[in-house]
Design a protein that fits this description.
This protein is an alpha+beta fold. The chain is built from 12 helices and 15 strands. Helices cover 37% and strands 16% of the residues. The relative contact order is 0.18.
Length: 355
């Protein structure tokens, strides 16, 4: 039940969100969902050209879905996190995939290195995105994207010896999922996650359609004023690195199921969170899970959340102490860092006022 205090806080969050969208010409449409049974809050709002029931492209938030799929296969004894990736991938594709300072480390890359971004592999997303923006007819398969990167980019360090956030790692995970399940990545998403959880308005960008045929059309998303929404080539570039298209309510179903161990066992989720690398100041990266940790003076305790963020200002996080879910997007690449900042400063900071 909502108290006067929680109503006041909700109004304040709503006001901040509207102001954020209205003051920035880049943002055409955005949504925000805040859910907390503990605090008696369920806020689902949209601004600009979006409405709250409309699905949005969630960018790299999709990585947490890919890592959950891999972990489901782990629980089914279909793979081990310690397995070399060469066990599951085409020989030609992985040939000389990781040659660092004259030594070939390809066989040393384990599934866990892809999951926690410690493989040392190059990031193919940004340079290929530039190509796509230059050429409206650009199209590439996930395999071709990996081969392109292998030819044009260099690894950063031996597997397990550092941290480098890359979509290449997650493209490879998508191909591993396909090899093990014998079905396409988007079909695996539907069978293992969307259908069991009743996520009827969710899909994989340009690969699949939502289970509910009456689902509204995808909200537009942009980079440098370029509308990427209907660019089919972009979907191949994103793939298992973040092709999830979903509504706030569907994303809430996913995160609730993950938090309550309906998708994965408690020990699996703990393993995913504990085998982590340092992403940046106050941020650690597990198996597709960003974890914000207290840093004296820089990161107050109140900001300790876990989940994932995306380049369009998309975010999906859970706040354990407040038992609160924070989901949203600004649908524009200029909000890559600002989306999470908004969530921390304008949403969590307000929620802490509710006793």
């Amino acid at each position: 039940m909502q108290t006067k205090q929680s109503e006041k806080v909700i109004n304040s969050i709503e006001k901040s969100f509207k102001k954020q969208v209205q003051k920035n010409k880049n943002i055409k449409g955005a949504f925000l969902l805040v859910h907390s049974e503990k605090k008696g809050i369920h806020l689902n709002i949209a601004e600009g050209s979006m409405n709250p029931k409309q699905p949005a492209y969630m960018a790299s938030v999709g990585k947490i879905f890919t890592s959950v799929l891999i972990s489901i296969l782990y629980e089914n004894d279909q793979l081990s996190f310690e397995d070399s990736i060469t066990k599951y991938l085409d020989r030609e594709l992985v040939k000389h995939l990781h040659v660092y300072q004259g030594k070939d480390y390809t066989n040393d890359i384990k599934i866990k290195h892809l999951l926690n971004q410690t493989s040392g592999l190059y990031d193919n997303f940004r340079p290929l995105l530039e190509k796509l923006l230059d050429d409206p007819n650009f199209s590439i398969t996930p395999q071709e994207a990996i081969t392109w990167a292998k030819t044009h980019q260099k690894p950063q360090f031996p597997p397990g010896n550092g941290f480098k956030y890359t979509d290449t790692n997650y493209h490879l995970l998508g191909l591993i999922i396909e090899r093990i399940t014998g079905i396409s990545f988007h079909v695996a998403m539907k069978q293992y996650i969307y259908q069991p959880l009743g996520m009827r308005n969710s899909s994989v960008l340009h690969y699949s359609n939502p289970l509910d045929k009456d689902t509204q059309h995808l909200a537009d998303f942009y980079i440098n004023k370029n509308n990427l929404t209907n660019h089919k080539g972009y979907a191949c570039l994103d793939y298992a690195g973040g092709g999830v298209v979903s509504t706030g309510e569907d994303m809430l179903k996913f995160m609730k199921a993950l938090v309550s161990y309906q998708l994965l066992k408690k020990e699996t989720l703990e393993k995913m969170m504990n085998d982590k690398a340092k992403y940046g100041v106050g941020i650690e990266y597990g198996y597709g899970i960003m974890q914000f940790r207290t840093v004296p003076l820089l990161m107050p305790k109140i900001f300790n959340v876990w989940g994932h963020a995306g380049a369009t200002g998309a975010y999906l996080f859970y706040h354990p102490k407040m038992d609160t879910y924070l989901i949203g997007t600004f649908n524009d690449f200029s909000y890559e860092r600002k989306g999470v900042k908004f969530m921390l400063i304008k949403v969590i900071n307000q929620l802490r006022k509710i006793k």
